[in-house]
Amino acid sequence: MTLHMQLRTKKEINWRELCFGQKIFIKEERIVPQREILPNEYRVERLISRKLEKRKSLGCPLKIFRLIIENAKKSLCTCMVKWEGYSVYECSWEPEAHLNQVLLNTFYTPEIDDSLFELAIQQRLRGKHNTVIIRFDLDVFRHCFGIENSYILQSVDDFEKLPLHKNWHYNLNASGRGLKIAFPLTVKPKLHMKKVYISEKGALEMKTVPVETLRMICAIEVCTFDQL
After folding, report:
1. What is the dihedral angle through the alpha carbons of 152, 210, 100, 66, rounded to the nearest 10 degrees?
2. Residue 157, Cα to own-chain centre: how many angstroms?
3. Upstream peptide bond of 184 is cis (omega within 30 degrees of 0)
4. DSSP 90
5. Per-residue b/e over 135-158, b at no fewer than 16 CB within 10 Å?
């Protein structure tokens, strides 16, 4: 208690002058900075990706360690969230415990409307390299294939969930000859964080932006219109 009393600031008061009408000091006024008030809730525009955090080694018996891990499984998984009404610079990793179950259930079945995949295939048909990398939303990938990792596609039917035209996998000329995609085709999604620098209130500030890409590895083969 003595230590706490010594840390308090004291106001020197001349008690003799106080008896002759000097005003007594009550409290020193000071300006308290106001904290920014955040909204009560944020709306999620879409879930970009998710990852499992590395488990830290705990110095405890194996049985207790297993019990701790079982209880902490939900908090070990985090999701990259794009917030509604905020720019892509404000995306953040959030524990699954911060997201409701309805939102988590839509992780593999988001609403999508995208045709970037078809453009990438046409790019492959016109190119010489067997690998094509495009910007591609990862929630679209999960919607189409129901998986987060690389995937091997065996036929045209595996793309039925994408809004593609009937001729998306081949390119013909006026004589009816051309090229088509040769199956199997491997697709691999990837998320990496890119550093960008912006001017924020007259100062240079570094932010990270999620970049979603899709790598496609496939061969092409000669075809005619009657072979399709």
Report:
1. 70
2. 29
3. yes
4. G
5. ebbbbbbbbbbeebeebebeebeb
What's the distance, CA 98 to chain centroid? 14
What would the pLDDT profile of 62-105 be if each residue is shown by its tens digit?
444 444 444 444 447 888 899 888 888 889 888 888 888 888 88
Q: Specify the pTM.
A: 0.59
> 44-105 has which CATH code?
2.40.50
* Contact assessment for residue 146 and residue 203, using Cβ atoms and an 8 Å cutoff: no
Q: What are the residues facing 94 on neighbouring strands?
A: 79
Q: How high is the pLDDT of residue 76?
A: 74
What type of residue sits at position 98? H
Whole-number pLDDT of residue 141:
84
- Residue 166's SS3 state is coil
What confidence tens digit (pLDDT) does each residue in 157-196 have? 888 877 788 888 899 999 999 999 999 989 999 998 889 8
pLDDT tens for 135-154 read 888 888 888 888 888 889 89
Domain ranges (residues) in the chain: 44-105, 116-227
